[in-house]
Write the structure tokens for this entry.
Amino acid sequence: KAGVTQTPRYLIKTRGQQVTLSCSPISGHRSVSWYQQTPGQGLQFLFEYFSETQRNKGNFPGRFSGRQFSNSRSEMNVSTLELGDSALYLCASSLQGMGDPTDTQYFGPGTRLTVL
Amino acid sequence: ILNVEQSPQSLHVQEGDSTNFTCSFPSSNFYALHWYRWETAKSPEALFVMTLNGDEKKKGRISATLNTKEGYSYLYIKGSQPEDSATYLCAFSNDYKLSFGAGTTVTVRA
């Protein structure tokens, strides 16, 4: 079974631009969650999508948005990029997602975003 | 914002030695605690999910215990090997999200 894939793996943008990251979950998984990791910080929860609906959102500004398609693939968009948005962005898929606290999340390799 | 803390932030251990480290989390409204291992250049990989007070899980030389009443979990590595070098993350499951600690980075010296 193929794992979680993310594209692109690396991205360089300049301040003010916008970016779209993509995540393809494991086949059969309906939940996709997004996380941001910056140096010295743990994984910060961005949002979770389940069956095309955003089920929960972390404490990030409205510049961070996402969506999920009918095939469970998800995209995350960041508009008006700031230097502080430079980070590793991870997505994770699972069967039930946050609706089941014991559900295991399977992570992708991440997208490394650098904002200049 | 849920406060999940891990200590120490990093540790070095000699090959063959055993070690352990801590994850602290809120003791109220507990649902589950997850442990993940994150090796360099790889994706985080699930180790354990724990739900019951007093629970103990084991996977090879790695084991974990859970105390939900006082809000902590220990992860133990017995007879550390170089392949155990990784960052170990714990995550508290509550209110439809996972709150991660910053991790404990373990370096095993040969």
